[in-house]
Amino acid sequence: MAYAGPRDLLEIDLTARTARRTPLPDAVFADALGGVGLAVLLLEQRVHGPIDPLGPENPIVLAAGPFASTPVPAANKHALAAISPLTGLLNEGLSSSHFSAVVRRCGLAAIVITGSAERWTTVAIDGDAVRFEDATPLVGLSARETTKALRDEYGDRSLRVCAIGVAGERGVRYATVENDGRQAGRGGTGAVFGAKRLKALALRGRGEVVLADPGATAALSATLRERALGPKTAKYRVLGTGANLRVLQRMGQLPTRNFTAAQFEGAERVTPERARESGETYVELRAGCAGCPVQCEHLYVRRDRDRRRAAASEYESVWAFGPNCGVADLDAVLDAIGRCDELGLDTISTGSAIAFAMECAEQGLVPRDAFGPALGFGNGAVLLPAIEAIATRRGLGDLLALGVRAAAARLGGGAERFAMHAKGLELPGYEPRALPTYALGLATCTRGACHNRAATYDRDLRDPSADPDPPTRAAEAIAAEDRAVAWDSLVLCKFVRDCFVDFETEAAALWSAVAGLPLDGDGLRAAAQRTWERKRAINARLGWTPADDRLPERLLLEPIAEGPFAGRRVEPARLAALQLAYERLRAEAGTVAPVA
Amino acid sequence: MTVELFGMARTVAGVPQVELALEGPVDLGQFLRALAEAVPALVPDVIAPARDALVEPNLLLLDGRRAPQAGESFDAGDRPCVLFLASGG
User: Fold this and answer.
1) CB under 8 Å to A569, separation ≥6 — which residues?
2) What residues of chain A score a pLDDT lower than 70?
3) How many angstroms separate the CA of residue A548 from the nearest CA in chain B?
4) What are the counts of helices (DSSP H) followed by strands (DSSP E) for chain B?
5) pLDDT of residue B87
């Protein structure tokens, strides 16, 4: 049987204003599955050495999830990959909802965009047709405003759009790409769009997405949907990820004030749970992706404010502007999150950049009045002016727009000590000093400090006192990385990961039912490993070496000061032993060259 | 014995902590039976119907830093916490 799903690759050259559509062979889908696997494969074919991430040669690859526009729940998703202007390495993000589904309804498996337009451009894809439209009138608009403007212009409310905001236009190295209110957030693909003067992709597709085995797909999807409405996802449906804040505070693993502490005295004042509990002060709104029964997003806004200003309360975003900036004012935190979404900024990197600037200001490396209100930990009033300055690249904001690694290098004076990143990507809100497997995963992750590609904190948190030997811990980190690749290739939302009894076997059966090609659990594991190896191969072509797999000095030198994990730090010798074990296991399992 | 509740356990119970009428060291089974008796609403979404295990992804950590080992007894001084992590996002 042949691959049943949409199989066309659309290659767009913005310089030449041309589009070419070709079918991908079955072998490509058998090899890479879809989503991140397909995006990485297509990128590997196009990146042969170091390139300028903001140059026309950097390919943007958008690859649909193989379950998008099918009955499979929590799977209307796509991958968006390019070389990151923040890390200089491979960056593959995910986004979701209606836009992802419409990519497949256009008959497309993937889109590759190269070149650079002479003027701001919207690429309009209407089924088989591709048009290059002048986007000059859209410059300065948010992604949401851009979507509305394009729908008005085309007279079509069903038009699906992904777009950049002001931050992407101005080349902020951690600008996002947004569709349907969801973002491919990390690593700055929005800046790559901006460098190509690509404001938006506008899609209209009404084609049928064929299933290889509709009966089996329906049955397997129904089982998954039923499980996704049960206790395994209750935490996301009822509370959302913001509930992590109280937990991590109790465990003494809540990075605070740019990782100078691991407990935040103001945590209770910014936890989204408190907003939910104090119903007289805030309104809670719910949202989620198309076709997802979980509807995980919990948004809050004060009762006396316009509900359109409700902001998402994802843990990472609340952490970035709350504990990490020492800000104990939930309104200031929610306003910062909402403004980042409007401007098209990654909340984790933006919060981290501001926390970095706060510490630099307290150490006398940057002016306290750079953004008006005093720049220092705890001052929520400085968040919005700082965010505006970053997005529009004004004053100190222009420096912070480069990310903390580059900003610290330019500042000098020891600022590198305050730059919390791995390979240039700012750290997310978990405490590596208390989470040894996670620390290893952060160091080795091909994307930089990404908690969703090296989600090894699950293992650590189940028993924080466990102390397995380095090969065991390294094997756990590898298993977590490879499983994340499998999730991201299928592309299934990780929030339903506990809904599988035997993930690889069940997910492979689902893919076979949808795609019509054979796949079993071992085949899924092998495909994931291939993709991981491709990721590293791309990075190696870009100049990466194992020596780049480092963690910030602060985590190695400064122990946690207080709380249940007081005294813990990342022991350099221990980390080196883990990395050696990791490299040996990777080399034994695949084609990765051993590291001495 | 004071038990700290987080996440779903806290939401279901409607309180941040509960007092259990337990004296001296208890094992996990004794602890969960007492907790289910004090807060029946925790069964079945947080505590399994047999009252012998927590439902994944809920977990018990002592003082937020270690899981009790199989057969291990603990007491009030160990500061039991029922919590979970909603990872990702």
Assistant:
1) A433, A555, A556, A557, A558, A559, A560
2) 455, 591-596
3) 25
4) 2, 4
5) 66
Question: Which residue in B34, B37, B42, B79 sits closest to B58, CA to CA?
Answer: B42
Residues of chain B found within 8 Å of residue A240, distances taken between Cβ atoms: 86, 89
pLDDT at A595 (0 to 100)? 42
Rounded distance, CA A39 to CA A61, Å?
6
Reference A545, options A497, A583, A494, A513; nearest CA is A583
**Residues 6+ away with beta carbon under 8 Å from A259:** A324, A420, A427, A431, A552, A554, A555
The pLDDT value given to residue B84: 83
Residue whose C-alpha is closest to residue A336's, from A321, A326, A316: A321
Q: Which residue has the tokens 């420096």?
A: A399
* Rounded Cα–Cα distance for residues A79 and A95 (Å): 7
Of chain A, the percentage scoring pLDDT greater than 90 comes to: 90
**pLDDT for A20:** 98
CB within 8 Å of B69: residues ≥ 6 apart: none
Q: Which residues of B touch A494 (CB under 8 A)?
A: 87-88
Contact B45 A458 (CB under 8 A): no
- Which amino acid is residue A492, in one-letter code? L
What digits encode the pLDDT tens for the residues B10-61? 999 999 999 999 988 999 999 999 999 999 999 998 999 999 999 888 999 9
Residue linked to tokens 């994340």 = A484
What is the b/e burial string over A103-120, where b = at least 16 CB atoms within 10 angstroms of the residue's CB? bbbbbbbbbbbbbbbeeb
- Structure confidence at residue A510 (pLDDT): 98
Side-chain half-sphere exposure of A208, counting CA atoms within 13 A: 5
Q: Concatenate the DSSP letters of all residues of A262-306 into one string.
A: S--TTHHHH-HHHHHH-TTTEEEEEE--TT-SS--EEEEEETTS-
The answer to whether the Cβ–Cβ distance between B55 and A494 falls below 8 Å is: no
User: Rounded to 5 degrees, what are φ and ψ at A254?
Assistant: -105, 100
Cβ within 8 Å of residue A363, ≥6 positions away:
A414, A418
Neighbour order of strands in the sheet with A77-83? A18-23, A8-13, A108-114, A60-64, A77-83, A90-96
Q: How far apart are CA A537 and CA A45, in angstroms?
A: 11
- Using CB atoms, which residue from B81, B86, B89 is nearest to A250? B81
The pLDDT of residue B69 is 86
Question: Which two tokens mark A71?
Answer: 């009955």
CA atoms of A569 and B75, how far apart (whole Å): 29
What is the ipTM for the molecules in this complex?
A: 0.95
Nearest to A113 by CA among A6, A206, A20, A8: A20
Of B11, B59, B87, which is closest to A239 when you measure between CB atoms? B11
Which long-range contacts link A498-503 to residues 24+ away (Cβ below 8 Å)?
A498/A232, A498/A233, A498/B56, A498/B57, A499/A224, A499/A227, A499/A228, A499/A230, A499/A232, A499/A233, A500/A224, A500/A227
Task: Find where tokens 């300028």 sit.
Answer: A52
The answer to whether residue A494 neighbours chain B at the CB level (below 8 Å) is yes
Chain A segment 219-238 residues within 8 A of B by beta carbon are 231-232, 234-236, 238
**B4 in contact with A, Cβ within 8 Å:** yes
Distance (Å, whole) CA A500 – CA A492: 12
In the β-sheet with A129-134, what is the strand arrangement from edge to edge? A129-134, A121-126, A198-204, A160-163, A177-179, A182-184
- Strand A108-114 to strand A8-13: parallel, antiparallel, or no bridges (unpaired)? parallel
Give the length of chain A. 596
Query: Rounded CA gap, A28 and A206, in Å?
Result: 25
The tokens describing A290, both together, are 């198309």
Please give the DSSP secondary-structure letter assigned to residue B49: T
DSSP secondary structure code for residue A515 in this structure = H
Per-residue pLDDT of B53-73, as tens digits, reads: 998 889 999 998 899 988 899
**Residue whose C-alpha is closest to residue A508's, from A120, A33, A77:** A33
